[in-house]
Amino acid sequence: YKIAVIPGDGIGQEITEEAVRVLKAVDAKFGLDLTYETRDAGGTAYDKYGTPLPEDTLAVCKASDGVLFGAVGGTKWDAVEPALRPERAILGLRKGLGLYANLRPVKVADALIAHSPLKPELVRGVDLVIVRELIGGIYFGEKCESEQVDGAERAWDMENYSVPEVERIARLAFETARLRRSKVTSVDKANVLATSRLWRRTVTALAEEYEDVRLDHLYVDNCAMQLAVRPTQFDVIVTGNLFGDILSDEAAVIGGSIGLMPSASIGTGTSLFEPIHGSAPDIAGQGIANPLGTILSAAMLLRYALHEENAADAVEAAVDEALAEGKRTADIYIADTGCTKVGTREMADAVLAHL
Amino acid sequence: YKIAVIPGDGIGQEITEEAVRVLKAVDAKFGLDLTYETRDAGGTAYDKYGTPLPEDTLAVCKASDGVLFGAVGGTKWDAVEPALRPERAILGLRKGLGLYANLRPVKVADALIAHSPLKPELVRGVDLVIVRELIGGIYFGEKCESEQVDGAERAWDMENYSVPEVERIARLAFETARLRRSKVTSVDKANVLATSRLWRRTVTALAEEYEDVRLDHLYVDNCAMQLAVRPTQFDVIVTGNLFGDILSDEAAVIGGSIGLMPSASIGTGTSLFEPIHGSAPDIAGQGIANPLGTILSAAMLLRYALHEENAADAVEAAVDEALAEGKRTADIYIADTGCTKVGTREMADAVLAHL
Ligand SMILES: CC(C)[C@H](C(=O)O)[C@@H](O)C(=O)O
Ligand SMILES: CC(C)[C@H](C(=O)O)[C@@H](O)C(=O)O
Q: Which parts of the sequence bind Mg(2+) (chains A, B) (predicted)?
């Protein structure tokens, strides 16, 4: 199997390095025959080549069986023009690889319940997946940076969805729900947006093919409340690109630590796997970043891209055991709880020890 | 002073009735000489007149010194065509009255800390205001319910902001911050949206006039996280219509109970005051809804629309005392805490007793 490794910026470098070490160990154990091609993207690529997503990076990703992505971005590139900012790399990869769906599981490890901002009794048992549409909506609609209208400068962005786009993501949500607790919550703003009304009508029509799955609709503002008030009510949440961006980040922190949340972006060809946290330039290079989100993303890669279930299970179990023995990076460390504070490398070592 | 009262749908009826009783009592005490004109809006108006916002309702509001609004909406009107849905009433009032800003204070009463889904140590001391732009953005941009493009049906909505629109709301946020802790957090999605880039540049330029106020920028996904993780970091949050809708609801539940959160929508003419919760058709007419959000909205009306500070203070103090003596409607009642569960009427009676 060919794995494309895109470390990106900031802590992206150190966390993907650890995840690759874990992949190598699991490869040695299960004989997967993995090979790696590492390429630049984001601000790092911009600095070297003047573009955040070199053609060669995209080509290597396309030719691979799975992409392991770190993180991109940083205030260093704040003054760069919009079309060349680090974020364009991830948006370009999503579009270039046709990654129409982002899956973010939020499951709370018992060992980390105390780390959620929510009360323990609200968080215990949370087990949901957000299925976010990833290459449509206002992210990729037509936009205008500046124009004059009636003597004033204005800018605009177009939100839009077509029936086939909505059907594709909704179908994935229904299929995902079938493998879980058979409940889909579709989130929109149909009381205000035309796009949401088309979304709702399309999801509702498709639901007829999935009579065994329960479908509810929630307005996005209500969903933002419900995630905080009663997150255990959710199984699969399906929503558009922008609402998904907001809600999945909210759901992630509620789950305890964004440092160990993985995500899978899947499409028609190669899939991409990345932790949900950012590039954290403030702590980059210090060896204190949490590598678990990336290691768990590598596990998702094993499972969803390579269909190596046993290898994926082994990595996830090793992470659970490292946490169970009390190993904690700074972001998930709480003093006086008997845990040991470790750095990026030691955390990965702890995972490796259990492989 | 002329007050327009718009009960709307569902529990809107019973809660505005109690708020008017409180206004009458405070009038008797402070000699404010208030008169009331009650009008229909929402689904109730649609049922009677075939439109959710009769011209007469808007005219009465325009001719008043302040509008007290209950809530609109209900599944009963789900099949009504978009342009005639109950929600059009509140959107129409906002536009018709030029209510460009929605102010939502989130302050956590000590007595209600236990009611927040967040851990007490995270919630204690939260005192923020969300300043949401209310008559622009994707809510009022051009939209298309259905069109054929390349053989597929699609719908679209246009997000847009002009420099003057952003300046107006940002100015209000800076002025509001000056009366508080002098900190403004502007929320956008400038790494993706052109509109957000114009927003950010405009707010940043305006900040030069407010050098005594500290300005930060946050992406909306990050803000959704920060509100859950460390809500005490915020003083004034300023954002566009759609992000404001989502974030203010999230902030509200974090504050403990949406049942007692008021809001003020202000503009160039008459201002409007409404609780942030909805019409809750499931409990309408049962006399169990929490009237405090509406009563506190009436207090905001006294303060911001009529500039009757003393009367406003008296209402707010009476609400605090009713809560302090343990009176609780069902939504904020927790068993075995020594509190008394009361209905809508008794809760208002408790407030009146302290006036
Ligand atoms: C970096 C940014 C463009 C991106 C997004 O908004 O999609 C990020 O927030 C995410 O969720 O992966
Ligand atoms: C009812 C609806 C149109 C409205 C909105 O989205 O603005 C509501 O959610 C609010 O926040 O007042």
A: 221, 245, 249
